[in-house]
Hflx-type G domain-containing protein
Amino acid sequence: MIILRGIQTKFISLAKRGLATSSCLRNVDKQIDDILTKDSEYNSIAESYFRLGESHKCLVIQPYVKWGPKKITSISPEEQLNEAAALIETLPKWSVVDSIAIPLDTLERKTLFKSGSMDKLTNLVNTTHISAIFINVSNLKRIQTGLLQENFKKPIFDRYQIVMQILKLHATSKHAKLQVALAELYYVARKAQKSAMFKTSNQDALKLMFQSREQKLKSAINDLRSQRALLRNKRRKMDYPIVAVVGYTNSGKTSLIKALTGDEGLVPRNQLFATLDVTMHSGMLPSGLEILYVDTVGFISDIPTNLIECFVATLEDAVLADIIVHVEDLASSNFDFKRAHVLSTLKDLSKQTDAPNLMDKVMSVGNKSDLVKKVQNDDVIAVSSKTYTGLDELRMKLEEAILKATSRQKITIKVPNGGDELRWLYKNSTILSEEADSQNSQLMGCKIIITSTNLQKFKHYFVNTK
Ligand SMILES: Nc1nc2c(ncn2[C@@H]2O[C@H](COP(=O)(O)OP(=O)(O)OP(=O)(O)O)[C@@H](O)[C@H]2O)c(=O)[nH]1
Ligand SMILES: [Mg+2]
């Protein structure tokens, strides 16, 4: 769901003009609630894969391919382990007790690990007080999970399960809940269809149940998408420049928008996937031009594609923005890896959504500059959302880019004092300053920002006709 937040008075004025969504979405609300809560047969199957209520002390294992084409060179196993631990720590009541990286020659082995590594891990499991094992690969095969569980006598989780649990916990809006439910359904249906339960129960009925749930979820998501498209058109008509803020999870997107807008409704959190809703926040550029910042869902590497696809819809607003601010965490040890991941996701998005000029709209902002001694990257605008350093420079650069991207121009225009022209300009442009003309007191000199279309209209109404 798109939620519009901003400085309160602005929120009210924007909401009155039809930008807030709640009333538009009310009619589909009940239908969505039913899909999410009343499907008891599905819910009881899904619960067996996701253990939201449990608390766990985890051993985190990072398998990594040591050589050959499958070897990952862009991020070290230690850095992967750090990210894996951050995922676990994001779940309330889950903690990391120990972590270990294990070299492999392939990820395809039935037991995943060779016997030597298996012995080493069994010893570690038996001598450490843990209640579960998180193996940081995107998706374990059912046979791998089964054999590892049998060997270690502890529940085994893969990355998909952990990310899904975080998403389930953090999804608050209907739209986010529906998308998470769809991502979960793909996982549950695939696992259930391969399980013993599926072989012994009425397979056709189970398949039908999954298919019907998928259809209901997709249709509800499509309804919401149409609502969003309507809202987008409304916003376009109102001509607010839009700045989408994207980036790797935890880079500080929400914090940056909060620092730029002063919006107290925003709550940055030191968690992965803290933001799962696309929200809008009004802000002002140095000239007084009002813009909307769009907060978005963070990116993360190594997530199964159907999980990503579910979130592409939420990024539609980003794709259609006038400028895309890419927030990067300057203090992150794997800065280059994260940058490459976000840029390649944006490139994919540009292809999928048929937006060929998407990459031209990207502006790189290096956040958390307060945590580094020296900013190494010359190609970013360095800021700190914590100390507010660099924000004025960022606003200036944004203004420059927005004026260019939205064909707006700053001009000075002379209009009759108190006339229709002035009233029209108040409605259709941003007035930066106005002062009486020194040579003719009947005239006002107005410095304005106006779109090319509105300038044409102004000329048509007030210049050509006279
Ligand atoms: N020191 C410092 N910490 C920051 C800065 N900006 C954000 N943080 C911290 O970084 C963490 C993540 O911030 P968020 O703004 O929630 O990050 P996000 O990119 O919106 O994260 P997701 O919504 O989870 O993708 C929080 O603990 C913030 O307080 C900064 O400039 N300096
Ligand atoms: Mg956020």
Notes: The domain at 407-464 is CATH 3.30.70 (Alpha-Beta Plaits).
